Amino acid sequence: MGESINQGYSKSENEIGAQFRLVEHGVGEKFKFLAEDQRAMADLMYSGFSHGIFPEGDEIIFPGEGTSINLKEKYPDQYERFLSGLRAVRRCQSLAISEFVNQEKTQQYPVFLPVWNNPVYEYGENRSYDGWVNNTDQNYFFDHRLTKDHLNSIPEQGKVFYSHGAIGPGVESFASVLPKTEITVGDINDKVREKCQRYLKNKGIKNVKRWNGSPAEYLSEDSDQFDAVYTHEAIWVNPYRAFSEYVRVVKDNGVIVGSCKPGFDHDTLVFFKNFSDIYGAESLIVRDADFSVLSIKITEEIKQKIRTDTEILNVLYKQLLPDGDDSEQFPDAYRNDFRVYEMNKDAVSKEIGRLDLSRESFEAGLRRLSKVARGLDLVMESSFNAIAVKAV
User: Fold this and answer.
1) Cβ–Cβ contacts within 10 Å for residue 282, how many?
2) So where are the chain's domains?
3) At residue 335, does pLDDT exceed 70?
């Protein structure tokens, strides 16, 4: 069958089967095809789910680094079953959302939602982890420098939030290209920020004006403050919540920019590209021998969609976690226990009513959130996960 699309992907059949059960649950017989041709199906499922490719037409194109792999041509025997399976998932999820919104109907299938609240201890571990202080990944910037071509979407005299500043070489490269920008550097790890400060001082960087130690998922920054948010190969506890915070702090028509080394795209670009596709945001990617850089334009329309969706998540998670982030027990990710969490229909309806959302807006928001959950989580190896819920 040729090489695996994802080099280094070496799951046992049982592990692959466990991943497949994420979409099999509640759908049953329609997914028996997943037990066949495990290797090819692993490639197809990994590519389709982890890169958010849910086909609307008859073809899936896998977005590699500057190239595309036509899965239909590579796996002609398995492809149609794969495509049929994805369509079955989409139909079942569409029905589940309609039933969730229409409180008079019994919900047959669960609705998948992205994880929204995370235990405080997860951020505490990152804040105190000494391994980030000696992170050699930043050495890449010694031989590979950002250029104006990489950062041409960022205003030369704007205000920038540089998320995950790490130990300094990346910030120094960025700040040198845009010396008239006013930069706020964010990193949750106190020792990392101190090392970054020393490094930039030694390099004579003058345009880093402020520092922020809050998690990207809970930024202690005012809304609509920055012209751009930039990050390089970030690792988040919760990518969607971090992205929603980036959208909140960036101004109307500002940009969110993510970069990574060339080769197989880092999660930063995978997540950002999927979020931009789901929300219909204009995006542009620049690739060369040094970096892949994705820029997303955040209009007021995009900001409003994400505000709506985060308000919906706040309401629904309040039903699951009345004590919020101080709760003693958080819902397990669906792939850990395959549990479907039940919500009281009347309580959900009452709280959603307070948001002053039309039924159409509520349903549209759930459909976007479902795409976030199933497109960016179900097969990705990430602390970010989906949960499954029903209204009863």
Assistant:
1) 12
2) 13-106, 122-303
3) no
- What pLDDT shows up at residue 220? 95
Listed ranges 37-51, 199-213, 360-374; the one with the highest mean pLDDT: 199-213
**Helical (H) or strand (E) element with 250:** strand 250-260
Q: What are the helix (H) ranges across 182-263?
A: 190-202, 239-249
CA 69 from centroid of its chain's CA atoms: 23
Q: At what angle do helices 359-376 and 267-279 cross, to 10 degrees?
A: 160
Of 127, 117, 58, 52, residue with least CA distance to 87:
58
Cβ contact 216:236 at 8 Å:
yes
The C-alpha atoms of residue 109 and residue 89 are separated, in whole angstroms, by 10
* CA pair distance 196, 213, nearest whole angstrom: 12
Residue written as tokens 């880092």? 266
- Cβ neighbours for 192, distance < 8 A, ≥ 6 positions apart: 132, 133, 135, 165, 166, 167
CATH code of 122-303, in short, is: 3.40.50.150
- Which strand (E) or helix (H) includes residue 111? strand 111-114
* Pairwise CA distance, residues 95 & 109, whole Å: 8
Backbone φ and ψ for 68, nearest 5 degrees, come out as: -130, 145
Could you report the per-residue pLDDT of 78-117, keeping only the tens digit for each? 666 666 666 666 677 788 889 888 876 677 778 888 888 8
